[in-house]
Specification:
Structural class: mainly beta
Shape: globular
Largest sheet: 18 strands, antiparallel, barrel
Keywords: Signal
CATH class: Mainly Beta
CATH topology: Porin
Number of strands: 19
Pfam families: BBP2_2
Organism: Alteromonas pelagimontana
Order of helices and strands: EEEEEEEEEEEEEEEEEEE
Number of helices: 0
CATH architecture: Beta Barrel
Distance between the termini: 26 Å
Protein name: Outer membrane beta-barrel protein
Radius of gyration: 23 Å
Length: about 400
Amino acid sequence: MFKRTSCVVALSLFGASGVTNAQEEGRIQMGNVDFVPDLTTELLHIDNVTYANDSQENISSWVGIISPQINAVTEFRGNEVEFGYRIERGEYFSSEADNYTDHFGHLAGKYEINDRNRLRASARYEDGHDERGRRYSNGFGNELTSPDTYKNSEVDATYSYGAMSAFGRIDITAGYEDMNYDMDDGVYLFRDREYFKYGAQLFYRVAPSTNLVLDANHQEIEYDEAARPEATLDSKENKVLAGLTWDTNEYTRSFVKVGYKQKKFEAVDREDFSGVAWEVGMTWEPMTYSQFKVNTKADTRETNSEADYIRSRDYSLSWEHFWIDRFSTTAQVAYMTDDYIGDVEDLREDDTTRLTLSADYEFRRWLNFGLFYQMNERDSNRDIIDYDRDVVGITAKVTL
């Protein structure tokens, strides 16, 4: 099924004298706070719940998902602050072991000191899960008796200097992330970790619709435990990208950033990385009601196996078209390659293809219906990692 990454707010809010009528569509006002609730439901059919290969038991099941959400928006000295909370419950009709309840929360705000100085910050919390057969249980999802649950928290802050109309401006960022899995026995013990992030991004306008961009980022990754202390996965990463963002015309927007990334482990037994990284994308709108997007990215990711790290390359193409104001369709194809790097015999090489087709209809302002189909296929040099998986579903979203 689709993994949700958007989040919401989990905080207790201000006292208020009472609920008034909605001040605008979809909102309820209580004092100085606007509440925006919604409810999303889904009915899916998954033909391979645990991402099993052809030689393993294949579990097929219908899944019912319900996900209520509440966002709260207020202002502080003219600057918007948003809180939110979402809970998601999934019930597998033919596989109770895969049932789950996830919680998501976030807080986000921005503060404009003046036209040259701006601040924005966010905090996010997720009490979520990896499906059986995903991430750390690739190839043996059937061996787990429940989803692989975790708690992830993250805070980020950005200071921006330079007016939006100026020739040059700079963003300075800092962040922290903590990932903690609930299952911590055996091989699952050695994956809890912290991220410390710092970076800067420079924009310089070289033409009316063209900006020179320079990204510099540093990240330190520290693991709580190591299978062998002399072979810890702790590492430091540095990445520098340079490129351009430009609008060819009002219908076409593009960006290209290419550079260098270095990942250096504290343990001498681990294999360091240094090589090319890139982020490239284009959005083309041949008509106001039709949009094409193409994106590609090359980077490294933390390992989920005995390897030292994963060298990844992602490619995607999508098309969204509004046939009428209330009815749209989206088609997306994505191709991902993952090469597992390290001093290990028979290292993994995965190629994953994903096709997604969806249609959405706004039946009323407050009621949306959707249909979707997703095909997933992974081809690996390790047969146990291969899988084919099809998901079909209907969705409904209700707002005020």
